[in-house]
Amino acid sequence: MKITRHTIKKLAKQENLFLKVNSSFNGMIDGCETHNGGFEAVESTESNHNNTLGISGVWLVGSSRDYFEHYEDDFCVGIYAYNCCGSFTLVQKK
Questions:
Q1: What is the pTM of this model?
Q2: How many Cβ atoms from other residues are within 10 Å of residue 13's Cβ?
Q3: For the chain, is the Cβ count within 10 Å smaller at the N or the C terminus?
Q4: Mapping DSSP to helix (H, G, I), strand (E, B) and coil, where does residue 79 land?
Q5: Using an 8 Å Cβ cutoff, are 22 and 34 in contact?
Q6: 49-89 confidence digits (pLDDT tens)
């Protein structure tokens, strides 16, 4: 099954989500920097809902410049997303 922006928007509306920010854009270095943290419970945000889907740590650029892959491990299933602004994994426990 192909994962699209619609797929991740549908996942973002679910409950009990966890987010792992793998990298994010840093203007001080004019590029992305890696994060070593693990999965954390999703925090809501009200700013720029079109790009964040209401989730702090998520950033989608749109215009077919977001790339998505299926993610699954022993404990959770979700979507790994990446673009020019960084990458993140959004999951729900099995």
A1: 0.90
A2: 9
A3: N
A4: strand
A5: yes
A6: 889 999 999 999 988 899 999 999 999 999 999 999 999 99
Q: Which residues contact 71 (CB under 8 A, 6 or more apart)?
A: 77, 78, 79, 80, 89, 91
- As a dihedral over the C-alpha atoms of residue 64, residue 72, residue 76, residue 86, rounded to 10 degrees, the angle is -40
Q: Which amino acid is at 93?
A: K
Neighbours of 50 (CB within 10 A): 8
Distance separating alpha carbons of residues 80 and 68, to the nearest angstrom: 6
Residues paired with 68 in a beta bridge = 81
Q: Are 66 and 60 in contact (CB under 8 A)?
A: yes
Helix ranges, the chain (H): 5-12, 49-52
Q: Tell me whether residue 59 is exposed, middle or buried, using C-beta atoms within 10 angstroms of its C-beta: 0 to 12, 13 to 18, 19 or more.
A: buried
Q: Is 65 helix (H, G, I), strand (E, B) or coil?
A: coil
